[in-house]
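Notebook entry, structure prediction.
Reason for the run: the old model in the group folder had no record of what sequence produced it. Starting over properly, with the input documented here first.
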Amino acid sequence: MSISASEYSDLVITITSSYDAVLFDRGTGATRYAGFWNPKSQGLLRPLGSVGVESYDDINGNRRPYPDLGRAKEPVSFWRPVPPKGYISLGDIAHKGWNEPDVYRIWCLRDDLAVRGSHAPRRFWDTSKSKAKEMSVWEVQPILHSSRVTGQDSSSKIAFALGNFCNVEGYSPPDASLANVVVLPVESLINTK
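New structure, fully documented this time:
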């Protein structure tokens, strides 16, 4: 597979359309529809988190529907990465099984390459009306009134959402400190070859 990557300041970014399905909640009894996906690694580049969508659609663009993973016998768990000092997590990980996911599958981001975001105003998925423990999932997004931020060095920056999410026990929003988004200097976006 040919990788087309762009370097922005100290961050190398590539766009992917290649994901592994983790869970479709069909058959769980939950009142909202959702699918959870893990971006596939590309070369030396690693995903920064799992992706959640309010749909059963195949985000790979395939027409054939995936199997109904909501009724699968294999359990699915959600994990929150614990970043090393100087790094942050951009969201939680959807993982097949109860065992801890491989720490090299999803990477954390250097904290100077991110800013505080927010959680969407409403949860996009929860376990209400299912027999599962109360849990909800909230999309992480840039702060709506300002996707353009000014850094401490007075340079303009733009914050980006990646489709990441945070889950929490219950139905109230997660702690705001868990909502982090990628931030890039505007100059690096303009001067990209």
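Summary: The longest strand covers residues 135-141.
The old model has been moved to the deprecated folder.
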